[in-house]
Design a protein that fits this description.
The complex is a heterodimer of chains A (347) and B (369). Chain A is α+β, with helices and mostly antiparallel strands. Chain A folds into 4 domains: 60 residues, MutS, DNA mismatch repair protein, domain I (3-Layer(aba) Sandwich); 59 residues, Reverse transcriptase/Diguanylate cyclase domain (Alpha-Beta Plaits); 60 residues, Orthogonal Bundle (DNA polymerase, domain 1); 100 residues, Dna Ligase, domain 1, CATH 3.30.1490. Chain A is built from 13 helices and 11 strands. In chain A, the strands form 4 sheets. A 4-stranded antiparallel β-sheet of chain A has the order 8-11-9-10, with helices on one face. Chain A is globular, with a radius of gyration of 22 Å. In chain B, strand 7 and strand 8 form a beta hairpin. Chain B starts with a strand and ends in a 7-residue tail after the last strand. The model of chain B has no long low-confidence stretch (mean pLDDT 92). The chains are: A alpha+beta (347), B alpha+beta (369). At the A-B interface, loops of A face loops of B.
Chain lengths: 347, 369
């Protein structure tokens, strides 16, 4: 979906249409969760501190997120996808991979299906979506980002290699800003440059991801579209309106966050053994502290106690704190999240 | 205060009482058993605040009184002692001294007045039940109850009493069992009540040598009594879902298959299924049923084919093997009757005799192939 949260807000509030809108945050605090295309013209993007966004565009409209509405729209589009194939792998609320090799509508052409799905999304949700069609997940993902918004890009097999060779390195899915800079510093500016590197050299220079880059630039990606996703971590975090300066207020906030995390864990029947505390200071420096326990944490009081231990070891934060987060990972196998595909009785 | 009690009687009572006590409790007093020492014997009581179990043990009493004793220690020591009487001495500050011919042990008890009171059951209606009927009602439904604490209504079994029918229903949202038992005569109680599955399991433990029973139902509690044992439970007040509306009437594909053959096949094949999704699929044709599974994560597969009789378009349908096994294990016929419609709608298992009618619904897992 194009600028998903922002588009939903513009759909539901005609007065926002055509204007720069940021979902989440406020003039002074928080982070932009999504920016409308009008806002993006000012260089505003998601995950940007709202204050920066406000500086770049003082007439930006900050909107409170309505997650219930986004979830509902998400359900609508996932349902549309399932009319075409059961092999749907959601990446987020508004994005999914679809394997249409075998499909329910007996179309031979994947682009035809993409066209129809986009038309249906528009008709049923009044929102626009972009689609990418190709022969693997990596290429489909890149393709979907090319003609945004409201675009459809097809990369047929015979054009894939040529396409990838010309593709600027920062457009590769999985290559972020930092890696892109690193690549440019060693003379890799596009796919062609990347292709000159051997697998071993890439592994040496970029670590484990090197292997992925090697195959990606050759258009090789054999990952299946998997409709079963197992949750690997769970957590909650909060950005505060005013920085926390004393230990007492940190303890209070940590209590609220732990309560939230515990509620989610109970809801998802999730048991984790590795607890991570994230601290972001007023100067945006981030510090994470984590510990793995022999047994999973069994209750809210224990969770809070362990989180407080992390807050105090090696020492309590010495700078004002802007954000605190608590998360769990290292899940116990028998408590893996139930398959999203288990159908429920419709009471 | 002194009293003595037969070790074997105490031990078997403690084992029962221990089933009520939560493993992890927020309230220390409920990890204790209450000893209410009366003239004619001792009432032992345990509670998890929802359910209370009380067992009366005849005993020779010299002095009456009350004390709460931590069950874990007491149960552990009774298991290590020989048969015979155990004598207890309780001091004014609540120290409990147990004397045996091996030696002497002491633990600290808790004040009896901290212990939660027995719920008062007034203006109760009585529901008369045959022990066999109650056994069937419990055995056929409790397995399908939800373990999800976020859905309190589904953690119980619904009991509906109509003129000549007793209906019990349990569901966890993925499967549902409706058990109907015909009864000859009407009851003083008509209406419905949702009871915690733990309460029913406790009743089930008591049912072996008993004929007729009376279940007392009041506004907020239910109570049932056996010889020396009484169980109380809070009634679940959350709304039980409208189960009738989800039982499909138009499942037109009919499958008949041998229960044990299918169950043992599913047991073997599911060993190779993915450990978290437990997904297996059934491919059903006119005369054969293929059970298969595939776990790409661990590169395991399993496949078996058995005979069946099937009327309808060939069908490929996925299930959580764990759910399917439990449903199959609870079917009563050798050849089970199954009605299906699509790979994404409820599968129905039916069993019908003159006196009982069981409908079991199982929701499938969406499959990829």
């Amino acid at each position: 979906m194009d600028a998903f949260y922002a588009s939903v807000e513009q759909r539901d509030h005609p007065e926002y249409r055509g204007k720069p809108v940021a979902v989440g945050g406020s003039k002074i605090r928080g982070v932009v969760a999504a920016a409308s295309y009008e806002a993006r013209k000012y260089g505003i993007h998601s995950a940007m501190p709202s204050r920066t966004a406000y500086k770049k565009c003082p007439h930006i409209i900050f909107v409170r997120p309505h997650f219930d509405v986004y979830t509902e729209v998400s359900r609508q589009i996932m349902k549309i996808f399932r009319d075409y194939t059961d092999k749907v792998e959601p990446l987020s609320l508004d994005e999914a991979y679809l394997d249409v090799t075998c499909n329910k509508v007996r179309f031979n052409s994947a682009s035809q299906i993409a066209k129809e799905i986009r038309a249906r999304i528009k008709a049923e949700t009044q929102l626009t979506a972009s689609a990418g069609v190709s022969y693997n997940k990596f290429l489909a993902k890149i393709a979907s980002d090319i003609n945004k918004p409201d675009g459809l890009t097809v990369i047929p097999p015979e054009k894939a290699i040529d396409f990838l060779e010309k593709l600027p390195i920062e457009k590769f899915y999985g290559i972020g800003k930092v890696t892109a800079e690193k690549m440019k510093s060693v003379g890799i500016h596009n796919g062609m440059d990347l292709k000159q590197w051997s697998r071993e050299d890439l592994l040496l220079k970029f670590g484990k991801s090197g292997g992925y880059y090697f195959h990606a630039v050759r258009g090789e990606d054999n990952r299946e579209v998997s409709s079963i996703r197992i949750r690997k971590s769970l957590g909650a975090e909060r950005t505060f309106d005013t920085d926390l300066k004393d230990r007492e207020s940190m303890v209070i906030q940590l209590g609220i966050i732990c309560r939230k995390v515990w509620e989610r864990m109970e809801k998802k029947q999730f048991a984790g053994r590795t607890l991570t505390l994230k601290i972001k200071y007023h100067d945006f420096e981030v510090n994470t502290r984590s510990r793995t326990f022999g047994e999973s944490v069994i209750g809210y009081p224990e969770l809070l106690e362990k989180s407080l231990e992390l807050l105090n070891t090696p020492h309590p934060p010495k700078k004002p704190v802007r954000l605190l987060g608590v998360s769990f990972s290292n899940l116990e196998p028998e408590k893996a999240e139930e398959s999203v595909d288990q159908i429920t009785l419709n009471f | 205060m002194f009293f003595s009690i037969d070790k074997t009687k105490l031990q078997s009572s403690l084992i029962q009482l221990n089933k009520v006590i939560p493993t992890r409790s927020t309230l220390p007093i409920i990890s204790c058993v209450l000893f209410d020492i009366r003239k004619d014997g001792i009432e032992l009581r345990a509670t998890d605040l929802e359910i209370t179990l009380s067992i009366f043990v005849n005993s020779e009493i010299k002095e009456t009184g009350m004390i709460a004793i931590p069950i874990k220690t007491l149960l552990d020591i009774t298991q290590e002692l020989d048969e015979g009487d155990l004598s207890f001495e309780i001091t004014d500050i609540g120290k409990i001294i147990i004397n045996t011919h091996y030696g002497k042990y002491t633990i600290m008890g808790k004040q009896a007045d901290e212990f939660p009171a027995i719920p008062t059951i007034d203006q109760a209606n009585e529901l008369l039940l045959k022990s066999d009927d109650l056994t069937e009602m419990i055995d056929n439904t409790v397995y399908a109850v939800s373990k999800d604490e976020m859905k309190p209504a589904l953690q119980g079994v619904l009991l509906q009493v109509k003129e000549n029918q007793l209906i019990t229903v349990a569901t966890d949202g993925h499967r549902l069992v409706r058990y109907i038992k015909d009864q000859a005569k009407g009851q003083a109680f008509e209406g419905q009540v949702v009871m915690p599955s733990k309460f029913l399991s406790l009743i089930r433990n008591q049912l072996s040598n008993i004929k007729d029973l009376a279940l007392k139902i009041s506004e907020n509690h239910v109570q049932i009594s056996f010889d020396d044992t009484t169980i109380y439970s809070r009634i679940i007040k959350q709304r039980f879902p409208d189960y009738e509306s989800v039982i499909p009437q138009d499942n037109d594909k009919k499958l008949v298959v041998n229960k044990n053959e299918l169950l043992s096949s599913v047991k073997r094949v599911s060993i190779f299924s993915n450990k978290s999704t437990r997904q297996i699929s059934l491919s059903i044709t006119k005369d054969s049923l293929t059970i298969s599974t595939e776990d790409p994560e661990n590169i395991t597969t399993g496949k078996e084919t058995i005979a069946c009789v099937y009327e309808g378009e060939p069908l490929l349908i996925g299930y959580n093997a764990q759910y399917l096994k439990e449903v199959l294990a609870h079917q009563k016929d050798d050849d089970i009757n199954v009605k299906l419609k699509t790979p994404v709608s409820a599968t129905i298992f039916t069993h019908k005799t003159k006196k009982e009618n069981i409908v079991t619904l199982l929701m499938p897992i969406r499959i990829n192939d």
